[in-house]
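Sample intake sheet
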Amino acid sequence: MPWPQLRTCQQEAFDQYMADRKYKREWLAMLTPGAGKTIFALYVAATLKQMGVIFRVAVYVPSDSLRQQWADVASLFGLELLPVRFPSDYNDHDSDGFVATYAQMNANGAERAFLAITATPTLAILDEAHQLGDDKTWGAGTQHALRHAENILMLTGTPWRSDDARIPWCAYDEETGRVQVDFAYEYGNAVADNVCRAVEIHAYDGQARYLDNATEVTKSLKDTSKGVNSARCSTRSSTRRSSGRPCSWRRRINCSSTAARTCPTPAAWWSPTARRRPERSPSS
């Protein structure tokens, strides 16, 4: 059965990984959400298995729902990955590997995964690797499980954490404290390549009632020339599609407006010495 065809950015990431893997056991790819991290990683896994470099694949994901999703996509590459539900699933000899959640890396789960991975050459894939913290439970258990993994391929669209914990296996720039990635494909690249849509979120009229010094005030977005910002409205949006969500007002009683703005390309979260894919204009 033919494997899914790689996009240009996925092919570039694959080529870079294959060039690096012999001397770099842990490898981090920053691919903006929607760029296709799953297909890229499983293409790597299937290729290494076909080459005889590895015999099994261990995938780690942050949530239960993603276990089956990864297993389903793996089947497109001829890989049978078992979503872990029972202790015996880690070392099922009828499958090509397993998909487990980070939360399953408690003492028992981490030890069973460690034994299975130690027994045969295994590629470990860490989806949303920034979910792991060096001194956190998930991070400690996963590090134990992967002590003897042949290679560790880490994936993320956001290579940072909100706390001070470091992401395991990642190199950090000593001056900036930012993660150094091995391959970066940014949102700006994805928009230029028509992989992701440009986020365009528009402000709509709405009314809000709130208390100001114990006085109830009713206002419309039309009441201010400065629009949403003066009304202290914030929004979140997806890079995969244009959408507005109900805004969040300080001192809010009720708000019915939907608002947002055009999102710029994210700032670099890694050291400038890291390899980055060059920006390309939409016409290139």
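Comment: DSSP finds six helices and 14 strands in the chain. Residues 8-192 form a domain with the Rossmann fold fold (CATH 3.40.50.300).
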